[in-house]
Amino acid sequence: MTILKFLVSKERLVHPLSAWNTPLTGVVDREVKAQSPWGDIAQTELDEALRVTANTNVAKNVIVFLGDGMSISTVTASRILQGRLKAELGEGNYLAFEKFPNSGLIKTYCNDQTTPDSASTATAILCGVKTNARTLGVKDSAVLGNCTSQAGNEVDSILDWFHADGRSTGIVTTARITHATPGAGYAHSADRVWEGDSEMEGVTGGCKDIAYQLVKENQHIQVLFGGGRYYFLPNTTNDPKHGDKNVKKQRRDGLDLTKVCNTHTLSLCLFNDGHLSFELDKDSDSTEEPSLAEMTEKAIRILRKNPKGFFLLVEGARIDSAHTDNNAKRALYETLAFETAIRGALELVDTSNTLVSVTADHSHSLLISGYASRHNSLFGYVDKVRAKYRPKDGVLWTTLLYGTGPGYDWGLRTNKTKQELESKDYIQAAASPRSSGTHDGQDVAVYARGPMSHLLTGVHEQHYINYVMTYAACVGRHKHKCMEESRLINSATVEKYVLTLYGAVFALRILY
Fold first, then answer.
1. Mind telling me the catalytic residues?
2. pTM attached to this predicted model
3. What confidence category does residue 35 fall into, taking pLDDT thresholds of 50, 70 and 90?
């Protein structure tokens, strides 16, 4: 197990957002011009759309980038932020994946809730079934917290199907590797919290924790980069970085799963005892935690050595963590780090044979409100408020707000300084009190390019994404379907067919 070191050159250890981490002034120097070439912009977009043609190749590789909690409002705000950091107005900017030729909307509800959690949504995307909230890698017949209900309700994932087809698989995440999204790729659990045996006190029925399942039952996964060491280390061992800080979460069965994995082909690299750090909190000179972009690059370089192809899940997990805290600044910078990873991946793959999709598992209640000027700071108070709309207490509202969470002020609103509003630690106001912000039930977007990406347009159920990926790659449920449609004909088969046809024609000439 790699704990602190990562195989990248010193030059690659530059913080991916280092060029952007200058304090925002709140005002962009560029003015809004009265006469802008709006027609030219629209015509350029039309020309680009007219050039798009459907790619019906078989996908040798599939990469799905999942921004946890990356609501459409998060994408919009991150787009603006990135533009502002480039000294532009921001709204006209595009994130890399927003330029993908195909996009659509995804309905995220799960079997038993309008607003889902990450376990049920990840099961939909990776396993192709909608299930109950907080359950992982099981059908909706499984009962939350009931171990015995798991038996017979387990479902395979796209990682299983790629492995069965002789292709490599990998998972990269900024969360614990046993967390809900990565866990859906390999585990079956009636409760997502069963990440380690320390979380299963009182559970009967013989179920194994998620970390155990990963190492003992999924040794075919070639690349696993993320966090979550404490569920793999025995409680008799100190963490190499944090000592006994989280010893209560460490294993009680005496197993050191980090040593077990080193005896197999599974490559498990855990860079923190829990989740990886937020991008804004990382030391740019530190080599202890790689960026998401660095982990993604390394994973692709390993997986693409398999001539048959690979599947890779890349999760920007801390977007959700920051939104849960009502901390918009960290959430948006996590989204920009996620986008940086996507940019890097596109340089390493051939999208003629690689399906690349970008989506979110669920939304969050981030709001962009209040009629602010285009040059106004994204994190500041709204700057254009007519007198009759000003609140009676004299305290304005910020452009970014939340629906629920710890930002609720209990009627004790006070004016904040510009420095406070721009701080990475500022908690945006929320409309309703809760110890943590909730997910949101709105649709999320999906963006795609590569083989069969044209199928990811329109409005679809979330598990439809899984069906498109398996159909594009001709694996799992669509393995035989592709053969029926003759989509698996390779160059050798074509050459053999042509020679046979030529021989038949030659024979007919002799006969007649």
1. 118
2. 0.89
3. low
